[in-house]
Structures are given as C-alpha cells and as structure tokens.
Design goal:
With about 120 residues, the chain is mostly helical. It has one domain (about 5-115): 3-Layer(aba) Sandwich (Rossmann fold). About 45% of the residues lie in helices and about 10% in strands. It has helices at about 5-10, 25-40, 55-65, 85-100, 110-115, and strands at about 70-75, 105. It has a two-stranded parallel ribbon with strand order 1-2. Helix 4 (about 85-100) links the parallel strand 1 (about 70-75) and strand 2. It starts with 5 loop residues before the first helix and ends in a 7-residue tail after the last helix.
Length: about 120
Amino acid sequence: MTSLTVADNIFLGREMRTKLGLVNYKAQNRRARELIKSMNIEMPETALVESLSPAQQQTLQIVKALQINARIMIMDEPTSALGVEETKSLLEVVRKLTSQNIGVIYISHYLEEIFEIGERVTVT
C-alpha cells in the first residue's frame, strides 16, 4: 500500500481535478503549501504522512479542516501524546485559529493548557 503525501491527505475525497478529470497534483500541492504557510507551520506538502511526527499529524488534521472552511473545530485531548515543544506548537496553532474567528472547543484534562488558550471554561 502506498502512503499519501500531505497534500494528497488534505484533499482526500475532494481532489482538485483537471478539465480531463485527472487529479491536478500541481494545484493541490500549491494550495496545500498555501494552507500550511497560512498557519505558520513547517511541513512539506510532498512529505509522506507516515513520516510525520504525532504533532505534525495532528496539525495536518487541522489544515485539512481549514481546506473545507470549517468554522468550528473540536479537539479532544489533542496534546495527550505530545511532548512539551510539540504542545507549545499546537497551542500556537489554536491561537492562530481563534485569531481567524474559527471556534475551537478544546477538551483536555491539562488545566494549564485550558487556562492558557481558553476564553471560557466549563468543568464537568
């Protein structure tokens, strides 16, 4: 089985097509690069998804949601498998999303993360 590239994963099921109906990889790579750059993320659009770190894979899912113009994102324990630096990077991505008026519902048992990025907190 062949692994997908970052760009292929972003457009999976919503591939950009040429007039002949073929996948337009050049356009997909260009658009993926734009989306990744808009989030200040370091991730080559041609990298294989299997070669990405857990944090990069997490961030890829966020970019994927941006590609379909999601206005609300729900993140359930997004940093549970991440290290300190990866967590900082992800929290920066969350800040960037909220600055673009994208709603984020962030579920975590790490309260320090919640207080760092949250505007409203609900504890149940």
